[in-house]
Design brief:
Elements (H helix, E strand, L loop, with lengths): L2 E5 L19 H9 L2 E4 L1 H4 L9 E3 L5 H5 L5 E3 L6 H18 L1 E6 L11 E2 L7 E2 L4 H8 L3 E4 L3 H17 L2
Amino acid sequence: MNKILVSACLMGHAVRYDGQSKPLAHPAITRWIEEGRLVTICPEMSAGMSVPRPPAEIEGAATGEDVLSGRARVVEVSGGDVTGEFKRAAENALALAIETGCRYALLIDGSPSCGSGFVYDGTFSGQKLAANGVTAALLKQAGIAVYSDREIEELVARLTADEAATADSP
């Protein structure tokens, strides 16, 4: 059975920077819970970050890939550099995905960690940038298929197709 790494906030855990959750209600989530497919993580909490915590963004309209390569930083609205924590968070998420056999990830969009469709541009003005967060970038580099919470239908279709192909092979 294919496992899915999922952002804890999507599962109703109040782990976001503002102490809130963003539960994702979808029939597939209920089915995947019953099947034992979901592996839940909040990358930031796994790296020891608190809840609540100051908002953070990748500075300079950069991407998670830029952070991983050392070309950009993740900074808090107060100016604090949390790049190390976000890199450790990504490494923890990847280690858990590998340990539990996750081939897919379902992550909350917009986060400087989990964003896969967009992140904010580092100005704390609400401006979006089509880019990956640090965790999403590292998971993708490792060959894990990453989907945002807005792409759950695409994940359902991919999982169904992949499992049908596996069932048909000798």
